[in-house]
Fold:
Amino acid sequence: MAIVVNMPRLSDTMEEGTVACWLKKVGDRVEEGDILAEIETDKATMEFESFNEGVLLHIGVQEGETTKVDELLAIIGEEGEDISELLEEGAKVKPELDEKEVVESTNENKDDTEAEKRVSSDTPEGVVMVTMPRLSDTMEEGTVASWLKNVGDFVQEGEILAEIDTDKATMEFESFNEGTLLHIGLAVGESAKVDELLAIIGPEGTDVSNLVQNFSINAQEQTNVAEEKFAETPQVVTTNETQNQAETPKIETEIQSTIITNNSRIYISPLAKKIAEEKGIDLNQLQGTGENGRIIKRDVEKFTPSNIRTSPPVEKFVASGQEDANEIMHSQMRKVIAKRLGESKFSAPHYYLSVEFDMENSIAFRNQFNSIPNTKISFNDIVVKACALALGKHPQVNSQWFEDRMKLNNHVHIGVAVAVEDGLVVPVVKFANEQTLPQIGATVKDLAGRARNKKLTPQEMEGSTFTISNLGMFGIESFTSIINQPNSAILSVGTIIQKPVVKEGHIVVGNTMKLTLACDHRTVDGATGAAFLETLKGYIENPVTMLL
Structure:
């Protein structure tokens, strides 16, 4: 069945989007996860990936055209499929339901409607439900880092209500409404998915207790609707029934499930079982709170070692040591880093070019430069500036790969990898080739400082055309990096080491630095990468030429 793809909401304030470019054309095969188009929002130009697979049958918004959020963007389906009825119905056709949703759609829609009625009918005039905003394109949930307002405070439109930890940074969330803060739905440190209740704003003295309760009931009913259905049709699974399981159609809903373990029955919903397996939790340690002691999703999510069921003592051999480990749940940032780097490593054919530069002149140049009052530059600043100038002469290295074309950038935006507590972020030095060394130094220092404090905006981490990763300050001599997509290359910079070198036939003490350029072979051939490094060598080994 054909699926209608509507204009997505890619920022919290986005009301409409403009198609910057299509990465697929009508008739192309689209896989789940493929980049379908680049969309200009009110904040940035962002990639929009497909959540469906099939053939692109129709493009509803041409490049340069604008449409509102949730209006028709494209249609994906089977090759040759008739979509005339969908086109006649207009832009707001609801996307086709997945197979698992079809089973539940009739009752679920009824339940959702009733729950929504309860909330809307009880909402006093002037009261606004503030939900967790989507503050980045990849954000699925957020954590409250701090509240800037307390219950009872008056909130003006545009005032900062809270600071929210996303998968990319800690961002300020401003109120789009004014009134008294009547309710806070999440304490500092607590997390919620996008669109779940964050706070309530309205006229002072308004009683919102019923509204909070009904909102919670609504959310709970949507989450547990599958658990409450088909309870009378249990699915019996045993440890030696692998083949039978494989032959049973997979329906990802929380219906009743019975598992036989060690000759005792454990009643558990399939979704709860799946989550427990992902977390490595022994089912025998779980205590069910569902009907007849059935283990459901919330039991797994709330599980702690204190919930372990008591079992008969088992005789054990006494060993001299004890195995121990700490488990740390993945942060949103770590999840995104893992996804992006995996996509880059396994989609872009990487190859590496290693060089070693003589740093004597750079050391002398930096010492002389820093002798100027109120001036301080680092070797990293020298590398950034040298790369920016070299990229201007080698646009092939300053490029990006798309399925149907290559984009050679005339501007130079250099991403500088910065290690933070949860992983790695890459703030971008815009138009680095046009900045002076002191300007680059000040920009990098400012971006790196705010990156470590999670104060960067998404715009400051977007748009890089080339990336530099420097581990020299940690004493690393050489290493390789994974390309920061959609860039075509990334430069790994090692530490400066003092060692014997041969100059004019004599062994003398010298200072050298190793660099490794990782290239995407789809855009940068070996000779092209080598030519770039040769130009870079000229700038770094003779840095005064960067001032000419």
In short: Residues 209 and 479 are 57 Å apart (CA to CA). The domain at 111-224 is CATH 2.40.50.100 (OB fold (Dihydrolipoamide Acetyltransferase, E2P)).
